[in-house]
Specification:
Number of strands: 28
Helix content: 10-25%
CATH architecture of the largest domain: 3-Layer(aba) Sandwich
CATH superfamily of the largest domain: MoaB/Mog-like domain
Shape: elongated
CATH class of the largest domain: Alpha Beta
Bound molecules: adenosine monophosphate, magnesium ion
Largest sheet: 6 strands, mixed
Number of domains: 4
Strand order of the largest sheet: 7-4-6-5-9-8
């Protein structure tokens, strides 16, 4: 058995970014930049006003005071999108709107609200500082500067920046394709009638949703019976068809746990099997290299909580690498334990809990239903308490580390 950090290192070593494709900007939200974004022009591209008001020469206003205002004649107007200065060099004040190019000779802008307008003049009652309400050319990005390194995720603001540089296309990493193969003779789809001993398949839907919430296309879903030949055959073609194969169930030590055997017959090399974590001990990771392309295989445990948490903690980092970025480790924060918790030493345990603030302090309360099959506890949880591998008891009031639980990242 290996620990979670060891497993994550092995995953990192085998998951490499997929090749890049050039796509229109409309199609890249959520994808990852394959090249650095280099500023193709200064931003802002020209020195402009940050407000609606009057462009002036600051030195003209030095002696302005409330009781003795300075009168400046309005000698013209600049609107956003208008480039030529109406008056050169500047005399008096020029009416200007947000984003309008600062006329030559002006070095400051007075907000409309800060002056008194009187016919074709304004009255200025205080000195204006040079640069006031001015956005200078290149003050945010200089042409040639690296705005983002390769590997940045394209969030809405990144998309806005790309558009702001006039980009219509960008190179991004291809997104991995995923097959989800759910195993078990006992499983039937929701909406059909249960016979004795059967249960509804909950993992297909829950994992498929988690995959999509992570920003990927819906996976291909296969339902496999616990049968040697059928399992081998189905997993064989799934391996051909997708970058990542996720199997669910059948990866433990039972007589009908056939997944590992089938994968080894399909020349998938085992990288790890069994982790010192709870829930999620019967976890498998393997790789098949073919024509310089690696296919990754995750064998997740069948118990629904174990399956979802394993996806969250092991598969997401791999998918992130294939997509071209490193998933940030979930934020770990320190909280006070609301009541005692016990376990056997030897495995790190994730205790499903709710975190709340109480008199300025964060308090984590373990939830009922900590079994690997008990989805209720996971559904209610907003955090996981890290119960360290060697510990067997955490006392009430103890300081514990918790990870916030978000399905999105
Ligand atoms: P296994 O890992 O195949 O031994 O399954 C462990 C437990 O998880 C068993 O109780 C299975 O019935 C249950 N299980 C496996 N797959 C699913 C699934 N897709 N939906 C709900 N429960 C499942
Ligand atoms: Mg099974």
């Amino acid at each position: 058995m290996i620990s979670l950090p060891e497993a994550l290192e092995l995953i990192e070593a085998h998951a490499k970014p997929l090749p890049s494709v050039r796509l229109p900007l409309e199609a890249v939200h959520g994808k990852v930049l394959a090249d650095p974004l280099v500023a193709s022009q200064d931003i802002p591209l020209f020195t402009q006003s940050a407000v609606d008001g009057y462009a002036v020469f600051a030195a003209d206003t030095v002696s302005a005071v409330e009781g003795l205002p300075i009168r400046l004649r309005i000698s013209g107007m600049v609107r956003a999108g208008q480039y030529e200065s109406p008056s050169q060099p500047l005399r008096g004040a020029i009416k200007i709107f947000t984003g309008g190019k600062l006329p030559r000779g002006a070095d400051a802008v007075l907000m409309k609200e800060a002056v008194r307008e009187e016919g074709d003049s304004i009255l200025v009652t205080r000195p204006v500082a040079e640069g006031e309400n001015v956005r200078y050319r290149g003050e945010e990005f200089r042409r040639g500067a690296v705005v983002f390194p390769a590997g940045a995720r394209i969030t809405p603001p990144v998309l806005g920046l790309l558009a702001g540089f006039g980009r219509a296309h960008v190179r991004v990493h291809r997104a991995p394709t995923v097959t989800l193969a759910v195993t078990g003779d006992e499983l039937i789809p929701p909406g059909t009638r249960l016979r004795r001993g059967q249960i509804y398949d909950s993992n297909s839907l829950a994992l498929s949703a988690a995959i999509q919430e992570f920003g990927l296309e819906p996976p291909t879903i296969l339902h496999l019976r616990d049968d040697r030949d059928a399992t081998r055959e189905a997993l064989g073609s799934a391996l051909e068809d997708s970058d990542v194969l996720i199997t669910v169930g059948g990866v433990s030590v039972g007589d009908y746990d056939l997944v590992k055997e089938a994968l080894s017959e399909l020349e998938v090399k085992t990288i790890y099997w069994r982790l010192a974590i709870k829930p999620g001990m019967p976890n498998y990771f393997g790789v098949r290299r073919k024509f310089r392309h690696s296919h990754l295989v995750f064998g997740l445990p069948g118990n629904p909580v174990a399956a979802l948490l394993s996806f969250h903690q092991l598969v997401k980092p791999a998918l992130a690498r294939l997509r071209g970025y490193r998933r940030e480790s979930p934020v770990s924060i320190s909280a006070r334990l609301a009541r005692e918790a016990r376990k056997k030493p030897g495995r790190m345990e994730w205790v499903r809990a709710r975190l709340r603030e109480e008199r300025g302090e964060l308090v984590a309360t373990p939830l009922e239903g900590q079994g690997s099959h008990m989805l209720g506890g996971l559904a209610e949880a907003n955090c996981l308490i890290r119960f360290p591998l060697e510990e067997d008891r955490l006392e009430e009031g103890a300081k514990v580390e918790v990870e916030l639980l978000s399905w999105r990242d």
